[in-house]
Amino acid sequence: MKSILVTGGAGYIGSHAVRELARSGYRPISLDNLSKGHEKAVLDGDFIRGELADEELLESIFQENSVDAVMHFAALCEVGESVENPRLYYEQNVVNTLTLLRVMLRHDVGKFILSSTCATYGDPQRIPIDEIHPLQPLNPYGESKLMVERVLREYDRAYGLSFVSLRYFNAAGASLDARLGESHDPETHLIPRILKVATGELENLQVFGDDYPTPDGTCVRDYIHVLDLASGHVAAYQWLCEGRDSEVFNLGTGQGYSVMELVEAARNHTDREIPLEVSDRRPGDPSHLVADPGKAHQMLKWEPEHSSVETILSTAWKWEQNRRY
Ligand code: UDP
């Protein structure tokens, strides 16, 4: 059985990928320092608690296991935090990745799948955003991921490392059986915050700006179910197993929903009130971010299966009411 090292395997997206890898017949090995992740979220394979910066630990993992590929989720991903503390983002997202790549190359492991982001594009010059859209990140988070993509291209050219970079749009939802879901502290993301207002844990939802150039004035995003992100990773791994070239793919649905549309859908779904408070725009938020997912459809044969707003909300709501961590 092929072993895949999953950094950040105890995190929101990583934990779903671990489960999908096991379901597809692979052996996941999760490495996570649990700074953001949850050990209870690792449902399959081995779990190693440790730091990505610990080169000796990485060395021993590659020595003791026959690792065929690395899926690299472990990273910081808060735009606001990256603006306040860019050092953290360049050290953890870039420097730690360089360490990981060094050890991989030493062990002749030549398949790498990167969690990248639509934040690499910056302010959209056209919607939907395809992969050849200009790359002008607006914050250190997006910049750090773009730097890693550039490093990967050079390592491919010079050392023959094959990679797939997956630029996610807005990850959302939870597993269908509610065993895995989103659990951040503090929670900053829109859908869990809406649902925390529905449960009464939060008093109201702050809507960050209602004067954007969108139909209802609130920001439009492309929400992609975390299970579809997980299947995208397995498809990317299989792509590399077939000996295909390194590639970059958007993972999104191509459909945009505004903050107000999601609130309305959540009101209908939960039958709760969800009071709102409109506040200032959040710095760095573009008005629209919607993927053109055509390249992943055509080349990876990947199609989202769980990303309707109904499924995203119903899985997230079930999780929110029965959290395990
Ligand atoms: N948002 C909001 N209130 C919140 C959290 C988010 O109005 O409490 C908005 C945010 O401004 C953005 C959208 O919801 O337009 C999605 O934000 P989120 O933080 O979930 O994801 P991001 O787009 O930053 O990755």
Concise synopsis of the structure shown:
This protein has 325 residues and is α/β, with parallel strands linked by helices.
3D architecture notes:
By secondary structure, the chain is an alpha/beta fold. It has 2 domains: 3-171 and 224-251, NAD(P)-binding Rossmann-like Domain (Rossmann fold); 190-222 and 254-321, UDP-galactose 4-epimerase, domain 1. It is built from 10 helices and 14 strands. It has helices at residues 12-23, 55-64, 79-84, 86-106, 140-159, 190-199, 226-241, 259-270, 294-300, 309-321; strands at 3-7, 27-32, 46-49, 67-72, 111-117, 162-168, 170-172, 205-208, 220-221, 223-225, 247-251, 257-258, 276-279, 288-289. Helix 6 (190-199) crosses helix 10. The longest helix is centred in the first third of the chain and has 21 residues, at 86-106. The protein starts with a strand and ends with a helix. The protein binds uridine-5'-diphosphate. Uridine-5'-diphosphate binds at residues 79, 170, 188-190, 193, 205-208, 219, 221, 259, 282, 285. Uridine-5'-diphosphate binds next to helix 6 and strand 8.
Order of helices and strands: EHEEHEHHEHEEHEEEHEEHEEHH
Radius of gyration: 19 Å
Q: Report the span from N to C terminus.
A: 30 Å
Tell me the number of helical segments per DSSP (H or I, 4 or more residues long).
10
By CATH, the architecture of the largest domain is named 3-Layer(aba) Sandwich
Helical amount: 25-40%
- Write out the distinct hetero groups bound to the structure: uridine-5'-diphosphate
Beta fraction of the residues? Answer: 15-25%
Describe the largest sheet. Answer: 7 strands, parallel
**CATH fold title of the largest domain:** Rossmann fold
